[in-house]
Amino acid sequence: MQNSMLGSWVKHKYILKRRAPRTRTKQLSLHLVLLLVTAISFFPFYWLLAMATNKTSDIFAYPPRLAFGSHLFENISNVLKSIDFFGAFANTVFVAGVETMLVLFFCSLAGFTFAKFSFRGRKLLFVLLLGTMMIPSQLSAVPSFVLMARLGWVGSFKALIVPGMVSAFGVFWMRQYAESAVPGELVDAARIDGCGHPRLYWHVALPILRPALAFLGIFTFIRVWNDYMWPLIILNDPARYTLQVALSQLDNVYGSDYGMVMAGTLMATVPLLVVFLIGSRHFIANIAVGALKE
Description:
- By secondary structure, the chain is mainly α.
- It is built from 14 helices and no strands.
- It folds into two domains: 2-59; 83-249, Orthogonal Bundle (MetI-like fold), CATH 1.10.3720.
- It has helices at residues 2-52, 56-59, 72-82, 85-116, 122-132, 141-151, 158-161, 168-181, 184-192, 197-208, 210-226, 229-234, 243-248, 258-293.
- It is a multi-pass membrane protein.
């Protein structure tokens, strides 16, 4: 009996020793693949940064120059001389910030309602909501402009903020998350304690929905920040231009200073990286807290 147990133990140790190198090889291969994918993903940003430090002649040199140049501050100075960068930056921060806050409020409220409340026509309304996601935004540009013109909002920030303060994707995302993350028993217990719909939303659902809100906030802020078509159509005062519209003024028919264009693009990209890093940290932290509570 002892000999058979000793034999099985030795066999088990031998198998573990044989498997250890294979496991290390798989881990090393996985890390190499991840490093390669990270390098490929980071390369466009590196190329943008490198082009922003060079002149146009250096950008079009053959073979391409991958090294950093010494003209970054010169290119930034040319951007500031060509457009009202800080004015457009402030306009974009205001529009993106206000619209993001409105999207978070209305989409989370609607998503929680669709997920945990039963009312007549709920399924039909949700299907119609999903149907609007299949309509390209270009098709609604003309009707939206006509509506804004009749309201007298052409050229104002209201025409940028109000049409986008609720998104079909945001409602769908919050509904799907609330369906699984908010326990029905918790909602029933809060109802027994006398909570109405506003208190259920604010005190029960909202703390649980923080990871989904963090993602939706990042997604919405980046979308509004990068929006070009609708601000170009609706804004007619250069003092109210958003950043993407103002940056488009750097390119002209007589020739383009691509070093200056890339410097302006870099200046517009850095705030997005900051927002993403801050928002993703809260997103990951809230997911980790939820996992620990489970």
